[in-house]
């Protein structure tokens, strides 16, 4: 995602975080552009977005920091100005499932924004992050005056429900290579960058993170990655995966006939 409007600083207020190699602070122009590019806010005027930004704040999180936990008070939603955020939950037995990774420009926490009830999952920073925080107490009065935004939020909630249904279907009906292939295709679509070797996924996830995304063990992920490396379908370097044969990986993700 390429946005303009960032104002460079000396980095003293944002230790460790970079944007395309430079330390940045995020000015109102950048934030405005980011929100207007998101489906949730694309339907409203720039004036209304400026009204939202007037009561929005910023929060900085270091790599691995917990942003909120399941059961925490649901006070509002957040937009990712920099970095990525892992959304997931841990069962009573200690098994973790990752629902999604929210990339730069994405929004999470919409459910709490609407109902104000406790968080339904954990959110954790992947890399140093900067978040735009929109509190429910400020946003609900705005929403009451903006029915088009309310309708768009309903569409977003429906999309989340569809994604959850697809996740449950994949877990129930697909074997590990199929689930793994579909995951790599999705990551490639969101974070892929074409190189002379293939499609490089520019998101560094551990084998444990990959396993959590498709409800399997790190050992199983390691074995499958090695199999595909031996078949020269993928390459793994410094934790980054490149799809050498993207179409063959996509074919793996198709249900057996």
UniProtKB/TrEMBL annotation:
<dbReference type="Pfam" id="PF13545">
    <property type="entry name" value="HTH_Crp_2"/>
</dbReference>
<protein>
    <submittedName>
        <fullName>Transcriptional regulator with a cAMP binding domain, Crp family</fullName>
    </submittedName>
</protein>
<dbReference type="InterPro" id="IPR014710">
    <property type="entry name" value="RmlC-like_jellyroll"/>
</dbReference>
<feature type="domain" description="Cyclic nucleotide-binding">
    <location>
        <begin position="40"/>
        <end position="160"/>
    </location>
</feature>
<dbReference type="InterPro" id="IPR018490">
    <property type="entry name" value="cNMP-bd_dom_sf"/>
</dbReference>
<dbReference type="InterPro" id="IPR050397">
    <property type="entry name" value="Env_Response_Regulators"/>
</dbReference>
<dbReference type="InterPro" id="IPR000595">
    <property type="entry name" value="cNMP-bd_dom"/>
</dbReference>
<keyword id="KW-0805">Transcription regulation</keyword>
<dbReference type="GO" id="GO:0003677">
    <property type="term" value="F:DNA binding"/>
</dbReference>
<dbReference type="InterPro" id="IPR036388">
    <property type="entry name" value="WH-like_DNA-bd_sf"/>
</dbReference>
<dbReference type="InterPro" id="IPR018488">
    <property type="entry name" value="cNMP-bd_CS"/>
</dbReference>
<dbReference type="GO" id="GO:0003700">
    <property type="term" value="F:DNA-binding transcription factor activity"/>
</dbReference>
<keyword id="KW-0614">Plasmid</keyword>
<keyword id="KW-0238">DNA-binding</keyword>
<dbReference type="InterPro" id="IPR012318">
    <property type="entry name" value="HTH_CRP"/>
</dbReference>
<feature type="domain" description="HTH crp-type">
    <location>
        <begin position="174"/>
        <end position="247"/>
    </location>
</feature>
<keyword id="KW-0804">Transcription</keyword>
<dbReference type="Pfam" id="PF00027">
    <property type="entry name" value="cNMP_binding"/>
</dbReference>
<dbReference type="InterPro" id="IPR036390">
    <property type="entry name" value="WH_DNA-bd_sf"/>
</dbReference>
<dbReference type="GO" id="GO:0005829">
    <property type="term" value="C:cytosol"/>
</dbReference>
